[in-house]
Write a structure and sequence with these properties.
The chain has about 400 residues and is α/β, with parallel strands linked by helices. The protein has one domain: Metal-dependent hydrolases (TIM Barrel), CATH 3.20.20.140. Strands 2, 3, 4, 5, 6, 7, 8, 9 and 10 form a nine-stranded parallel β-sheet that branches. Strands 1-11-12-13-14 form a five-stranded antiparallel β-sheet, covered by helices on one side. The chain is globular. The protein binds N-carbamimidoyl-L-glutamic acid and zinc ion. The site of N-carbamimidoyl-L-glutamic acid (NGQ) has 9 residues, from loops.
Length: about 400
């Protein structure tokens, strides 16, 4: 039996610390529970984490990512400061914890330090729990410059604007001007919840994606995360911009965001990547499958995400999210060789032609079918096990135990 190899996928949207709260926000607190009540719970966990905790959580998460077929991750990183909002003695301490976790696990990292300045479109100040996230523009640009001294084949430093809610227009312009000569990724959360669209319409007179396209030169460097709520003209304009939309189907389902207009966007030749975002699931298979299933449920049809030429749903979703992931993570990481090898000896993959292999991997449930993974020539997963998974899991367990006693 010959091996079946694929390039590794990019997980284009991650908040690593949220992995440690998977399952801890699934209790109804109010019949009107929503994204916004979840966010308060998430902030409580965000408030507990110190640099060592972050490294332990991220390393465990990155092991799980590698074992599931992701070989690179874009960290949308906003947990910058101490709990009271003062910078750590090393202002980059939290960023360095993520870089250390990527190094020790062998995953490629596109680190996106996030600019976060205000509590909403109206310019209100950060709440007490948001103070860990905040920067003035100068301090933010200094952090980015400091981190860029350590860039390497395995580490790209892009930037992110948390959202239109959290970054005032003048600050957005200042940061984009500083970045204008650079060919590095720029990410932003956008139009995820209907409330954000309504507030943007009320305060800025246009919908979020339309506002961004009107006020920034959105090009192939950009990744718009979620972009769930789009009008028909926004779908077309976004596809034309050459930006990538990062879809996070399991998180979008978990948070009750809504459904992205996938067939319309694909018909407009829009590009997309995938991300596991809040990490209530860490599996490209599950993201891609749910992406397709959401549309089947919405349209009461089958086999929706396909191209003009490519009629295999699995192959189309894989190829598109790979290409989009490479754009989201930037050229430096896209240039790296990575390989995932499926376990063709598994009964599920028996009697499958190459063209049926991807459809079977994605549409056969959650049996782990990734056998080996290599990143930049280094074998990091062998026979379904990460080379350092036991130590990393032990440290993670100690961390969350200690953490639950605080
Ligand atoms: C985040 N996560 O920054 O972690 C956000 C929630 C917000 C998602 N949107 C906070 N999935 O958007 O204000
Ligand atoms: Zn996010």
């Amino acid at each position: 039996m010959t091996d079946f190899n694929l390039p590794g996928l990019v997980n284009a949207h991650s908040h690593a610390f949220q992995r440690a709260m998977a399952g801890l926000a699934e209790h109804q607190t109010d019949p009107a529970d929503s994204f916004w009540t979840w966010r308060e719970q998430m902030y409580r966990y965000a408030g507990l984490i110190e640099p060592d905790d972050l490294q332990a959580i991220a390393a465990q998460l990155y092991v799980e990512m590698l074992k599931s077929g992701y070989t690179a991750v874009c960290e949308f990183h906003y947990l910058h400061h101490q709990r009271d909002g003062r910078p750590y003695a090393d202002a980059a301490a939290m960023s360095r914890a993520l870089i250390a976790a990527a190094n020790e696990t062998g995953i490629d990292l596109c680190l996106l330090p996030v600019l976060y300045m205000q509590g909403g479109f109206d310019g209100r100040a950060l709440s007490a729990r948001q103070r860990r996230f905040g920067h003035e523009v100068d301090a933010f640009l200094r952090l980015v410059e400091t981190l860029r001294r350590d860039e390497s084949d395995a580490l790209q430093i892009g930037i992110a604007l948390h959202s239109l809610r959290a970054v005032p227009p003048e600050a957005m312009h200042a940061v984009l001007a500083a970045e204008s000569e650079r060919d590095r990724p720029i990410h932003i959360h956008i139009a995820e919840q209907q409330a954000e669209v309504d507030e943007c319409l009320a305060l800025r007179g246009t919908r979020p994606v339309a506002w961004l396209l009107d006020h920034a030169e959105v090009d192939a460097r950009w990744t718009l995360v979620h972009a769930t709520h789009l009008s028909a003209p926004e779908v077309q304009a976004l596809a034309n911009s050459e930006a990538t939309v990062c879809l996070c189907p399991t998180t979008e389902a978990n948070l009750g965001d809504g459904l992205f207009p996938m067939p319309e966007y694909v018909a407009a030749h829009g590009g997309f990547s995938i991300g596991s975002d809040s990490h209530i699931s860490v599996s490209p298979v599950e993201e891609l499958r749910l992406l397709e299933y959401g549309q089947r449920l919405r349209l009461q049809r089958r086999c929706i995400a396909v191209g003009a030429e490519e009629k295999s749903v699995g192959r189309f979703l894989f190829d598109q999210s790979l290409a989009g992931g490479h754009r989201s993570a930037g050229a430096r990481i896209a240039a790296n060789a990575s390989r995932i090898t499926l376990d063709v000896a598994h009964p599920l993959l028996a009697a499958r032609s190459d063209s049926e292999m991807l459809d079977t991997w994605i549409f056969s449930g959650n049996v782990p079918l990734v056998r080996d993974v290599s990143v930049r020539g280094r074998d990091v997963v062998r026979d379904g096990h990460h080379i350092d998974e036991e130590r990393i899991a032990r440290r993670y367990i100690e961390t969350v135990r200690r953490w639950s006693q605080r």
